[in-house]
Amino acid sequence: MSTSADVRPLTSPAAATVPAAATVPAVAAGAAGSAVLPAASAVGSPLSRLDLAQLGPNWYAAVMGTAIVGNGAAVLPVRLPGLIGFGEAMWGLGAAALLVLAAARLVHLTRHREAARTQLLDNPATAVFYGCPPMALLAVGLGTLLLGSRVIGTGPAVALDAVLWGVGTLYALAVAAGIPYLMITRHPVSALEANPTWLLPVVAPLVASACGPALVPHLPAGLPRQAMLYGCWALFGVGLLATLVLLPVVFTGLFHSKVPALALTPALFLVLGPLGQSVTAIHQLADAARPVLPALAPVMLPLAELYGVAVIGVAMLWLAVALTANLRARRAGMPFAMTWWAFTFPVGTCVTGASALAGHTRFGGFTGLAVVLYLLLGAAWLLAAGGTAAGLLRGRLLAR
After folding, report:
1. Using CA atoms, how far apart are residues 232 and 218, in angstroms rounded to an integer?
2. Is 366 within 8 Å of 44 (Cβ atoms)?
3. Cα separation, 238 vs 155, whole angstroms
4. Residue 179 CB partners (closer than 8 Å, separation 6+)
C-alpha cells in the first residue's frame, strides 16, 4: 500500500513523504484498516478482496457517527415532521453496523491474531482507536432507549441498553487505563508528535457518564439509583480530568509537528468530542439528580448551565479552526480516508450539548445552534458514509 501518492504533509502539499513518527503511519498510511484508499484491484469481486487482517478498531467510528445522528434527532430541541422516524432509521442502521462490525472483528481477532496483537501492542497509532468500540456500544445503547423503545418496546430497550452500557463502560475504563499504560511502558511515542487521536481512549468514560443517567429512572428507587448517579459522576471525573491532562500534550504536538499528513487533518475534529460530551454529560447528570439527590439538584443545574455555556463557546471556536484546516487540506488534495468519520461523532456531541443547553436555558440561540450543528452533522455523515461505501464496493478499502 503506497503512501507517497495518497498522503502528503499539510505544510507542503507538493511533497511526497510522510514523517516516520510512530503516531502517524497507521492513520495516515492505512495500516489501521486501510485508512487511505489504495488503488483498486482489477480481479475478483470487492467482497472477495476484503482482507480482515487490516480491520482495525478505527472502523467502529462509523458506528459511532451513525448512532449519534439518530441520538441527535431524538434530543434536538425542535420537533420537525419525520425527524423521529429518521432517527429510528439511523438507530437501526447503527445497530446493524455494530452487529456486522462486531462479527468481522471477531473473525479478525481469532484468525488474524498476530495482526490484532500488533495493532494493540506495537502500533500506537492504531492502539488509540481502541477507544472507539466502547463508545460505539454506548451510543447504540442510548439510541436503543431513546429511539428503539418505539420499535421493540420499552422493556427490551431498557434491558438492551443496560447490557450495552454495562459492557461499554467496563470496556471504556479498561481502555482509559490500558492504552495510557501501554504508551508509558511500551509504545514508542513522543509528546512532540502527539495528535488528537490520543484523546480517544479517555473520552470513552465521558460518553459513559452521558449515557448512564438515562437508565436511572428505570432502576429501583433508593440505593441503586444513587449508586448509578454517583458512578456516572465518577466516570465524568475520569474522562474530564484525563482530557485536561492530555489536551496540552496534544496542542504541544500540533504546534511542534503541525498536522503531519493530509489524511490526518480530520482528526482535528476529535478535540470537539470531550468538549461537547462533557456539556451533554453534566446536563444529563443534573437532570437525573433532581429526584434522586434533591439536596444537590439546586446547585447542579446552575453549574451545568455555566459550564455548558463556557465550554460550548470553546468548542465553537475550535470548530472554526478545524473547519478551516480541513478546507485547506481539501484544496491541497486530501483524499478520502476512514479518518473522515472524525467529522461526525465529535460534532454530534456538540449537537447534544447545545440541545441540552437549549432545554435548560430556554434561550433560542442555543436552539438555533443545535439545529445548525445537526445540519452540519448530517452533511458530514453523508460524506463519510458515502466515501466508505464507495471504497468498499470498489475494492479500495480493506483490499488484499
Report:
1. 15
2. no
3. 31
4. 127, 128, 130, 131, 201
Question: How far is residue 264's CA from residue 247's CA, in Å, rounded to a whole number?
Answer: 17
* DSSP notation for 359-386: HHH--HHHHHHHHHHHHHHHHHHHHHHH
Task: Tell the residue number behind the cell numbers 482482507, with chain if given.
Answer: 51
How far, in Å, CA of 185 to CA of 196, rounded? 20
Whether residue 36 has pLDDT greater than 80 = no
Residue among 373, 159, 201, 149 nearest 280 (CA): 373
Lowest mean pLDDT among 28-37, 41-50, 330-339: 28-37
8 A C-beta contact, residue 264 and residue 195: yes
Residue-wise pLDDT tens digits, 197-253:
999 999 999 999 999 999 999 999 999 999 999 999 999 999 999 999 999 999 999
Q: Which residue type occupies 83?
A: L
- Tens digit of each residue's pLDDT (9 = 90 or more) over 248-277: 999 999 999 888 788 899 999 999 999 999
In 3D, which of 93, 139, 161, 147 has the Cα closest to residue 276? 139
241 touches 314 (CB < 8 A): no
Tell me the DSSP string of 101-112: HHHHHHHHHHH-
In the numeric block, which cell numbers belong to residue 121?
Answer: 501492542
